[in-house]
Amino acid sequence: MSNLELPEVFKQTQPREGVSNRYQMINTESVIKDLVNKYSFKLDDIKVAGVRKTENIDKQKHLAILKYTDLQTEEGVPTVVIANSHNRSSSFQVHTGYIRFACENGLIAGTNIESMKVQHTAQNWNELLSSFISQYMKNVSIMEDEHRLLKRKQLNNITLKYFLEEASKIRYDLKDVLDINELNLIRRPEDVGSDMYKTYNRVQESLIKGLFTRRTRRTTDDGIVLDNWSQAKMLTDQKEIIRVNKEIRDLAIGLTAWIIY
Description:
By secondary structure, this protein is an alpha+beta fold. Helices cover 35% and strands 22% of the residues. Mean pLDDT is 83; it is low at 102-106. The chain folds into two domains: 8-148, no CATH class; 153-256, no CATH class.
């Protein structure tokens, strides 16, 4: 499966004492084996949260990161992140996409992210997981087709301006003022290019990581006042990251229908 040695928390078959008799134990090791054997994923990394109480030892939150290395593209590697615990601290979670970052607090970032959460009281959790992963594997080929389409479409000044303006609204409303061109800054040699794919990736990174400055417009008794310029904050809320990722991608793909070259 992997050279990684799974800690005991991944192998647990019993939850912490005191849970409801409705609690459905989800063994993380068996889920990993299923992804490896059925879908040819490879275990890439594991993470285990620290504990303060002795009763949480080997019951705490833990992550498994698996990658589908048979399909590695410019976008990255299709990835599945499993988050689980056996002490009622979190639900069983599965995140899929081209995930670039995962840490112990559960923060997930990247592109094409979809997530599923299953309460430990769900008796059909294995059916839900199987359906979710199967659909994801079907979507991988669709996403690759979308990537090729985005790479073929070149942005001119008009379509670029429209894309940047609409993308900025995904994070901020009209009360905020920002230089939309900051969203499109080239920060590394591999980002060079004016096609929709390169532009989409630059803007996505800028909006998620807060790589731009902004001002807030306020209405006072004396009229409209603009606050001083300040650095935007990096998104840390997982639901918000997923929302922004999805909406930027939908915007990019939708715009390609209007680009004829």
